[in-house]
Amino acid sequence: MSNQSYVQKGKLTLLSLFAMAIGGLISCSSPVDNILRNTPVAPVGNQTFTINALRTNGDPVTVFTLAVTGPDTSFTTEFTATPVILSNVTTGDYTVEISQTGFIGQTKTRTLNVPDDASTDFEASMNVNITKVNDPVAVSAAASTVTVNPIGNGGTGAGSTATTVTIPAGAVQAGTTSISITPIPADPEAPDVDTNGTVVLSYDMQPTGTQFDVPIVLTIPLDVPVALVNAGVEYFFEYTYADGTQDIQPIVLSANGRTGTVSIDHFSTWKARSGFTISETNRQVTRSYIGECGADVSETYTRTGQLGGVYRAAYSLPASATNVSFSVNVSVNGVDLFQQTGTATQTVFDYTITNRSGNVVERGNAIPRRIGSATYSAAECHDSGG
Predict the structure, then answer these.
(1) What is the CATH number of domain 133-275?
(2) Which of 122, 359, 134, 331 is nearest to 233 (CA)?
(3) Which CATH superfamily is domain 43-132 in?
């Protein structure tokens, strides 16, 4: 055998050993940590803000106008369907006003804290409400009784059934021929709270500024739990003047708490306030979903919290509002040799209701605020089954 043959065989042997070494590095039974790969770039996420238009009596909204102002948008548009979804929202305050002819509208502001990472999915939602103005009722100088239509949403608490207005003889001044009184439920998402407690209900009374020579008497449905009545919980009827001074009238509760009576001498937007306080604390809860190596992650993180009877009565909420749910979608496509992780975050709140003596009346835990986000990360992996 020639020397040249030995040289050729030596070259083949070296090539075979080199090929085996490379094969060992990339075989499925060997670690991949020694191979450098670029971490996959996550796709651009969805940042949305959903606005739900609702009627306080539970009926569907057919036509409404939304005026929205935010850090990246400003528009006033008439809509015929709900919800309205804003895309590509950014961090900042979004003020939403809903209106419709013949209805009392609402203006609310929601602060959105959208993560800086463009790959993060962010979801938030808000309800805005309109209340139909009750038809005017004819009145005169003679004594009369006016029945005010209830909110009618199936809830308990103030305004859940008809309110009776007793007008003594001689109370109505000359020139006043009709009045309109419309109960408006408090909004749990934007409660008006002060030292007197939490707003239970507002009464829009028209014509605004109407004076009565003799105080009129309102009998208001309140559905206050008997335990609260026995504990001495107080209710107030309150009006705030332009200069900040207040006219506060006590509401006398019936023994069973079903109704309360109060006397007033002028029309404006009066507010019924409870003598107990609702304290709410926000916190965040998370859940992570880890996919298989190279596989997609597609999950939904749903949380449901329960509102107690006293809380629902305070805001005139129906029994159907007991369970509050919100979902965050976690979705990311798989990348070969990488393991995807998606983490969903939701904001929830705990509440405590106390009476004026500081005694706890009711507690609630982990109620969804209907705001959440999903973040994603990837780590190298390898399938050891090859």
Answers:
(1) 2.60.220.30
(2) 359
(3) Immunoglobulins (2.60.40.10)
